[in-house]
Amino acid sequence: MDKYAKAFVKASLVYLGIGVVMGIEMLIWPDVRYTHGRVHGHLLLLGFMAMMVYGVGYHILPRFMGRPVYSHRLGNAQVWLANITLIGLSVSWILEASRGGMWHLLAILFGLGQGVSIFLFIFNMWKSMTPQKN
Ligand code: HEM
Ligand code: HEM
What we know:
Layout: H1 3-28, H2 33-65, H3 72-99, H4 102-129
Helix pairs in contact: 1-2, 1-3, 2-3, 2-4, 3-4
Bound molecules: protoporphyrin IX containing FE (2 copies).
């Protein structure tokens, strides 16, 4: 398994752990639902679910197609971008609720970065499945 694919699977498991702890936290202290609900949801969907799909997808999909991953460099870049922006987005969303201002702007920037990381995956997977002309 490529290093970045394994890194995605490991990160995914870490977000599953953090996300579930936050879910239980919200059951115990319902007051934090307003600030933590969105972070819980996105750590689990963008963190656990999506990163598990990225990791397993990078490993399995090109093999099913009998071709290598189009770009390992893009795969490596995506691991960093996806993780840094998800953590940044989560922290910004929590602080935006109490401090607003700069944190709202940071949430937008990290959200855009997360979007870019998603498009890196779409592009890399698409190219991996398209027959090369040579
Ligand atoms: C022990 C496991 C879990 C507990 C105790 C839990 C608990 C909660 C609670 C208390 C809320 C807030 C509901 C509200 O505001 O009315 C919530 C929202 C949510 N949960 Fe979980 N959850 C768990 C696991 C998961 C998992 C595994 C996923 C996804 C893979 C997930 C996805 C979501 C989503 C998408 C929301 C809505 C977030 C939003 O308001 O934007 N949860 N959960
Ligand atoms: C760049 C990535 C993303 C950004 C910046 C983003 C942002 C947001 C925002 C701002 C909200 C509204 C939150 C609120 O009203 O409190 C939201 C809601 C939600 N998002 Fe995302 N999202 C992203 C990706 C995703 C993905 C990939 C999924 C699913 C796999 C997802 C699932 C949800 C769900 C389930 C809700 C709650 C909907 C509801 O309560 O009506 N998001 N998201």
